[in-house]
Amino acid sequence: MVDTRATGAADVFQAIANPTRRALLGFLRAGETPAMQLANQFDLTQAAISQQLRVLREAGLVAERRVGRQRLYHLNPSPLRDVADWLSDYERFWHDAFDRLGAYMTSQRPQQISKTRQGYRRKPPSTKGPRQ
């Protein structure tokens, strides 16, 4: 059976895979921002930023509002909830794995301590005289 959350979030995963798009999302966390102001944050052309914003818009991560000739963008974080939900399954996996590792390490600790103490015992002094 296919997990529909994973396939439905594929566009969102693709959108957030790009560091420029992640940075754009970070800027938009502060609130609605004009496209030109966003473009000024990067060493990219206005067209390149527009393309990145289009990918984010198509994934549902940003919305656009026009005021005259200006385009204002704002963050729509709700698609990220699907990603977070999908990732939570793996978070539980890692927590369980680390809990099992911790339990194993705790069970091995007394044995390791006794081996370590035996390994570091001071050797008795040599009965031979000094080297010449």
Q: Please identify the oligomeric state.
A: single chain
So what's the overall shape? elongated
Percent range for helical residues? 55-70%
CATH superfamily of the domain at 4-79: Winged helix-like DNA-binding domain superfamily/Winged helix DNA-binding domain
Gyration radius, in Å: 28 Å
The percentage of residues in β strands lies in 5-15%
**Helix count, per DSSP?**
6
Strand order of the largest sheet: 1-3-2
Structural class: mainly alpha
- SSE string, helices as H and strands as E: HHHEHHEEH
Give me the count of strands: 3
CATH class of the domain at 4-79: Mainly Alpha
Largest pleated sheet:
3 strands, antiparallel
End-to-end Cα distance: 79 Å
Q: Averaging pLDDT over every residue, what do you get?
A: 83
The name of the CATH architecture of the domain at 4-79 is: Orthogonal Bundle
Low-confidence stretches: 4-8
CATH topology of the domain at 4-79: Arc Repressor Mutant, subunit A
Explain what the structure shows.
By secondary structure, the protein is mainly alpha-helical. It has a domain at 4-79: Winged helix-like DNA-binding domain superfamily/Winged helix DNA-binding domain (Arc Repressor Mutant, subunit A), CATH 1.10.10.10. The protein is built from 6 helices and 3 strands, in the order αααβααββα. The chain has helices at 4-8, 10-16, 19-28, 35-39, 46-58, 78-119, and strands at 33-34, 62-67, 70-75. A hairpin with a 2-residue loop joins strand 2 and strand 3 (70-75). The chain is elongated, with a radius of gyration of 28 Å. The termini are far apart.
